[in-house]
Amino acid sequence: MTEYELQETEISENIHTEGDIDPGETAEWLEALDQVLTHRGADRARFLLSQLFQYTYFKGQELPFFPNTPYINTIPVEDQPRYPGDRQLERRIKSIIRWNAMALVVRANKKYPGIGGHISTYASAATLYEVGFNHFFRAKGDDFSGDLVYIQGHASPGIYARAFLEGRIDRSHMEAFRREMEKGGGLSSYPHPWLMPDFWEFPTVSMGLSPISAIYQARFARYLHDRGIKDTSGQHIWAFLGDGETDEPETLGAITLASREHLDNLIFVVNCNLQRLDGPVRGNGNIIQELETVFRGAGWNVIKVIWGSDWDPLWQSEARELLVRRFEETVDGYLQKYVVEPGSYLREHFFGKYPELLKLVEQYSDEQLKKLRLGGHDPVKVYAAYRNAVEHKGAPTVILARTIKGYGLGEAGEGKNITHQQKKLNDDELRHFRDRFDIPIPDDRLAESPFYRPAENSPEIKYIKERRSELGGFVPARKTLAEPLEVPDLHFFDEFFTGSEREVSTTMAFVRMLSLLIKHPKVGKRIVPIVPDEARTFGMEFLFRQIGIYSHKGQLYEPVDADAFLFYREAKNGQILEEGITEAGSMASFTAAGTAYANYGVDAIPFFIFYSMFGFQRIGDLAWAFGDQRGRGFMVGGTAGRTTLNGEGLQHQDGHSHVLASTIPNCITYDPAWAYEIAVIIQDGLKRMYFDREDVFYYLTVGNENFPMPAMPKGVEDGIIKGLYKFVAAPAKDRGKKKNRPKAHIFGSGSILREALRAQQILDEKYGVAADVWSATSYNQLRREALAVERWNMLHPAETPRKPYITALLEKEEGPFVAASDYLKGLADQVSHWVPGGLYALGTDGFGRSETREALRRFFEVDAECIAIAVLHQLARRGEIKAEAVAKAIAELGVDPEKANPMIS
């Protein structure tokens, strides 16, 4: 026997051993249930069944668990609404779009082999999108009240093809697919707002990010409404994703939030073509049933759209239950195989399992069996699901739509494992595609895969534009609020410029600034504090009482700390988004708030405060997408640095977030040491992002080490923003000493700036070295400015060369330069090229330790003693002091020269 026959025999034996011991009694129960359904309705039947289940549990009996409904459509034929559109004309339009989407990729790869693109994803999802475009997706108007649609990244050719018919994209753009730098502009490979800022709304091709982003987007829409900022009651958030995409943890990781918050403005459409990029999603299982279990268990409204109208007579036959059983026996690997095999194979291997099913399809020809349409390709079934979704109240909806990957490609890849990689079609394959969708391209032009657009006054073009006009305009379309927001000037932060003898941390200074901003008459309501369950760590608990934690339900309980002054207060109009233990979810909220100016037409000013170690390291992909979306806001890495966090150890100590943040081009990063630096940076960010309307966002790190805060030296504001300024000059030499002391410079940043100041004192008092101390607020900003200057010099060789800021600032200074930070040596070392004589960097390369700050700084060699030794070492290399003096200092300062290298120990 074949492996297939053995499997079938095993299933058959199991079924027949699970017989009904009393069919008569079973019939009585079913008849009673049928009477209730007929005369009292489904609600009464559900109530009675729930009572039976509860009663049985109370009796201590174990009940069977049924996570799934049968493998049939959720919406029965009799409940389907009337389809409102012109079916024939819509099919015609969809066929033209299919052709142009295919031609887009094929033409690009013929002209530029290997440039890539995807045909099969849109081929499987065309009906899912077209029903939405024609009847559901409302566009943004002047009030930005349209729907937000997350489109599958790999389906972008189909969206471009539709925009081509709509007249939004011309033929020259279509010819420049995946070539954005073409004269006149081209089309980006995937949805990228950075590259096409008037078209795409969301970057979606990094799989898994769309679902979590859509969930928090839907919640943020409620947040805006509940706080009285924007009426979003009529909007829906649609997210289109693939069944293989659900393997990404971000896809399913936050779905309980959507049901917990009753986000009935959220609709997931899962394109269940049963295929990943290389093979079946669940070859040995059933992904639709699996996803139904997951989403139903999470409290979602689940709608399965599996079978098209061609199947309706089969499901209404007496063999219905046996047909359900047959599908329950069939794994996805076979369902995929049935797509590529002829109708005779389907008859023999699927229906042939049971004589009753074979008889059921005896009037169907093999060709008719082959053409039985699936639900995701049937507009009537898809429309019924969408209508149910938008009308459903109290819970989010997921639509599980069965489709075929590469639908329409035939032998070129329909339903095959190779279809995702298909970029080209030969003449026979093009002819098959053309004939299947009735595209008026003559044989002699097939080889060139020409684009086809009917005349402007044709029924197709008139219809597609009428439907979009009825729904308010074109989708996708990115509109932005351009009106400057009045932000506080620098004087608003005056209290931080005078210094404080009281010891505070930079975290507490920042939180104080945040509390002041929340009270500001212009921007206060726009502030969106976002915290992933660390508010008390960052000293933000007083904000619980002041502005409340947002909850659409309000607070349905008395908190355990209700008698405390700073109790945990949830409120429907609360301002804080306290996200729980999820950096990814918090980042998704940050994204929704940081792009509100484009998605809702209102400014929101998010401050995302998190453990710096768990920021960019965990959410780098989401942060990159935030940059792509032109998001604006402040990311604040708390308890930052590798040596500032007492006792926590390796996985809590951040020595690299600034390096990771530097990879995002529009992320502006700072590592401030003093309260006044933070104030200057925040004011600069508010101005640039919300008044000047620049598409940038800020990352700054703050620590939890307490120390006195100095007053701001005069005239340093510009240096703070550019990344470097002289904080304090070397102590003056004693009167009477005629010999010039060796000169040096120490760059300090963040908490290590205080170690630099202590090193300055050691060098002065013990070794007669005069060291200036500089505050390096941003090595990344220094490097970017220097690179920009060098680029200008290279491209303008006949003009007077410009000097980078850092070079001009330091060129008249004498002596070596040593930098010390709580981050990797590479952070400071990246500007060494522009420092006169070079820069010697100290940093915290290596894994962290559970220790005190003092021990950690000695271990990583960034404490004052090690900084002093580094300065002396550089002076010795320059011949200004003897090497023996350095060796003596190492012994005097208690540093073990044979200690383990922290990078590898």
Give the SSE map.
Blueprint lengths: L2 H15 L5 H17 L2 H17 L28 H25 L8 H16 L12 E3 L5 H11 L4 H5 L33 H18 L10 E6 L6 H4 L2 H6 L5 E7 L14 H11 L3 E5 L6 H4 L4 H10 L2 H9 L2 H7 L5 H6 L5 H5 L8 H13 L5 E6 L24 H11 L21 H12 L29 E5 L1 H13 L8 E5 L10 H6 L1 E2 L19 E2 L5 E2 L4 H12 L1 H4 L5 E7 L4 H13 L5 E5 L18 H5 L5 E4 L4 H17 L5 E5 L5 E3 L7 H6 L1 E5 L14 E6 L4 H15 L2 E7 L2 H17 L9 H6 L6 E4 L4 H5 L9 E4 L10 H7 L4 H14 L5 H10 L13
Parallel strand pairs: 1-2, 2-3, 3-5, 4-5, 7-10, 7-11, 8-9, 11-12, 12-14, 13-14, 17-18, 17-19, 19-20
Antiparallel strand pairs: 6-15, 16-18
Helix pairs in contact: 2-3, 4-5, 4-6, 4-20, 5-18, 8-23, 23-25, 29-34, 34-35
In short:
41% of the residues lie in helices and 10% in strands. With 905 residues, it is an alpha/beta fold. α4 (87-111) crosses α6, α23 runs parallel beside α25 and α29 (753-767) crosses α34.
